[in-house]
Amino acid sequence: MNATLNRPRTRAINPLRLSRVLLYLVAAIVCGAAGICYVSLKNTQHRLGDRVRDVEHQIRELRARNQDFQNRIVNLSSRTALRRKLDSGFIAMMPISGTAIARLSPPSISTDDGIVRTAAANSRLLP
Amino acid sequence: MRWNARTRIVIASGFLGIIFTGFSYRLIDIGVTKHEEYSDLAARQNSIRQTLHAKRGVIYDRNGETLAENAPVRTVVADGSRIRNPEKVAQIVAKCLGMDADQVTKKLTTAVRDDDKYLVLQREAPVEDAFNLKTALDAAKQTGIYFEEDFERSHPNGSMLCHVLGFLNHDRQGVQGVEASMDEYLEGQDGYRYIEHDRTGRELVVYRGQEREPHDGFNVTLTIDMGLQSIVEDELDAVVKQVRPRTAIAIMANPRTGEILAMASRPNFDPDNIGQAQPEQMKNHAVIDMFEPGSTFKIVASSGAYNEGLVDAHTEIFCEDGHFAYGGRILHDDHPNGTLTVHDILMKSSNIGAAKLALRLGGDTFYEYVKRYGFGERTGIELPGEIRGLVPPPSRWDKTTITRMPMGQTVAVTALQTVMAMSAIANGGNLMVPHIVKSLTDSSGTTIKEFQPAVVRRVVTEKSANFIRDALVDVVSAKGTALLAAVPGYDVGGKTGTAQIPKPGGGYYENKYVASFCGFMPAHDPAFVCLVLIQDPKVGAEMYYGGLVAAPVFSRIAERAARYLDLQPVMKALPVTQVASTKSSSKEDTSNQ
Fold first, then answer.
1. Cβ-based neighbours of B570, under 8 Å, separated by 6 or more
2. How confident is the model at residue A124 (pLDDT cuts 50, 70, 90)?
3. Closest approach of A111 to chain B, Cα-based (Å)
4. Model pLDDT, residue B571
5. Is the pLDDT of residue A120 over 60?
6. What is the largest CA-CA distance in chain A?
7. A-chain residues near B254 (CB < 8 A)
8. Could you tell me how far CA B51 lies from the centroid of its own chain?
9. What is the spatial distance between Cα B262 and Cα B81, in angstroms, rounded to a whole number?
10. pLDDT the model gives residue B585
């Protein structure tokens, strides 16, 4: 018989301490969760950052378009543009008849003092 | 040593412990010890200083009408490394930007082949076109086209007021006009922001660093009234078309405040198309050009002599029947005059009379009055390039200068100086500082600075100014030289000027003249002073006089300005019967034609 076979065989037992395992497990889970939370927060930050950038871009675009439209309105209603329209007959200037002028004070009649006065004399501040 | 399981576990654990200790050390070394070094390196590689552009201020007229504004535009850029389908992208770009599709396809194909990351397809593209292009590209799921923000200066009224407004160069700096003189206020202050970007170039907003907000430029409000400006420009265009002068100038100012209400010069240019303008067109002749004023300068000697008490309303001066020998030369009057009062000297524009007034004053005193009126010094208006003019001191005069300068020869002045001198007569004797900028406001509308009227000095007493003013009213009458400057219903004062144009080498051109008229209205309570100056008009013989060329232009400007400003007429109304008969006769005239 082989001597090795005759050796008394003892069964090797590694006792598992459940509390210790649980401790490591909890620590690992906490660390893992913290890491995942950190990554998640970081991703959320970046995602929100992207949205901030996109919104800022949209605001800039809107402001630019708003400015563009304002400029068009200014150009279309500018003195030169109105003059062009007036010359082409697109718009016309109608004289205001004397009876259509509302006066806050009684008009100065030319026959009173013999002086010709315009409709709104003295009502406008000179520059 | 027994090589059992425990030993193996200890060795393996120790080995792993050493490895992880090494890793930990390296981690701490990178993350803590060399944190600054690697942060800087990362910043250098990925962080950039992004400029936040300030908006340039807007320029308004006195009534808030926009004169110069910022039009947002886009520079359309292609990144060849990110274009997948150049033909399709080219079609969209060409359609939205109105470009030739074949040319765009060629450009994009080349950019893709050469991996060109920055190919400018169009500069100053309208925002609306850029927006449509982006929408179309997004819809077609195409990439590789980017838009850079930019702006261009826009002038809603085109060439009107171009010399006063000026323009910007390629670096967005004011070159001429108010754009140049008020550049430091209009420009604003750019801000900045330190940003980091990923390898695709997209900004990582989380890592935004230090930043400073941009401060927009101040808005500038001018004293110009565009209603009056358009009247002045209309009439100037009409006379330029009629007499084809080398240059033409018109300035309108408020004599009490020194505010410039209108200023125009010909030739002019389109500030929105500056590349097409010639240098001569860009000059604001009202402030950078000088000329011999001619008879408008006679107000200096006459007001000086009256102010010094050397003459009064009744003093008579013999005008030598049109031939006055002095200093070895003969001085002529256009029409022979005998004895004239100071009033008549101005009314008839006698050269000999003005010379004799200056002789009474003496060279030094006359020179002092020339300087008192502001000739020979800059007025200080907020426009670049203003010149002083040329007023030689008595020490440099020859024998005849004392007789030539009072009639506006041997002296060179600017159009603006003439307007301000006439304003001094119109307002009762005060020389005002001319202003063309009324106020500065920030982007929220708060007034930052307001330019107040300022008196340079009192030139003559109010009594003297009124005396000259009354004489100038008679200039614009059948007895004077400027009947054509009259405005029905209003009293007008003013003085004509007709001066030969000097040759560069000395002497004068035979048939080249500067015809001018500087007047004010209503004469006894002036709302404005206006100068019309026509240099070298192409007119027939004996038609070059200021009273014939410039005075009618003044009359038309003043008549329209009176309606615009709603000035109260002072002329007696015609009786109703006479008005009716006038109307019927005019109808008959029309029917006869």
1. A115, B489, B490, B491, B522, B524
2. very low
3. 8
4. 65
5. no
6. 156
7. 126-127
8. 30
9. 55
10. 46
Contact partners, residue B366, CB within 8 Å, separation at least 6? B300, B301, B304, B358, B402, B405, B406
* Paired strand residues for B144: none
A45 Cα to chain B: minimum distance (Å): 7
Q: What are phi and psi of B204, to 5 degrees?
A: -95, 100
Residues of B with CB under 8 A from a CB of A: 5, 62, 65-66, 69-72, 126-128, 131, 149, 154, 156-158, 160, 202-206, 223, 225-226, 230, 254, 259, 261, 489, 527, 563, 565-573, 576
Instruction: Say what the pLDDT of residue B514 is.
Output: 94
Could you tell me which of B518, B496, B343, B563 has the C-alpha nearest to residue B423? B518
- Is ipTM strictly over 0.85? no
- The pLDDT value recorded for residue A122 is 45
User: What amino acid occupies position B2?
Assistant: R
Please state at what angle helix A79-88 crosses helix B226-243, rounded to 10 degrees: 60
Min distance B113 CA to chain A CA atoms (Å): 31
Task: Flag if A127 and B149 touch (Cβ within 8 Å).
Answer: no
* Residue of B154, B203, B206 with shortest CB distance to A71: B154
Q: Which of B159, B181, B265, B295 is catalytic?
A: B295
Question: Using N-to-C axis directions, what is the helix angle for B462-475 and B298-307, rounded to 10°?
Answer: 140
Judge whether B59 and B165 are in contact, CB under 8 Å.
Answer: yes
Look at B259 and A127 and tell me if their CB atoms are within 8 Å: yes
Tokens of A9: 């065989």
The two beta strands, B447-450 and B508-521, are unpaired
Give the residue-averaged pLDDT of A51-79: 91
* Residue B354 three-state SS: helix
**Cβ <8 Å between A49 and B204:** yes
Predicted model pTM: 0.82
Q: What does the pLDDT read at residue A114?
A: 56
CB contact under 8 A, A50 and B149: no
Res. A48: pLDDT tops 60: yes
Strand segments (E) across B235-347? 247-253, 260-266, 290-291, 316-318, 323-326, 329-332, 339-341
Q: What is the pLDDT of residue A111?
A: 52
Q: Token pair of A8, please?
A: 């008394």
With a cut of 70, which residues of chain B have pLDDT below it? 1-2, 571-593
Active site residue B295: yes
Q: Do B72 and A61 touch (CB under 8 A)?
A: no
Distance from CA of B490 to the nearest CA of A (A): 10
Partners of A42 on chain B (C-beta within 8 Å) are 206
Contact B83, B111 (CB under 8 A): yes
Tell me the chain B residues in contact with residue A46 when contact means C-beta distances shorter than 8 Å. 204-206
The answer to whether B390 touches B366, Cβ cutoff 8 Å, is: no
Count A/B contacts: CB-CB distance under 8 Å. 101
Structure tokens at B559: 């008549």
Q: Please give the residue that has the higher pLDDT: either A43 or B541.
A: A43
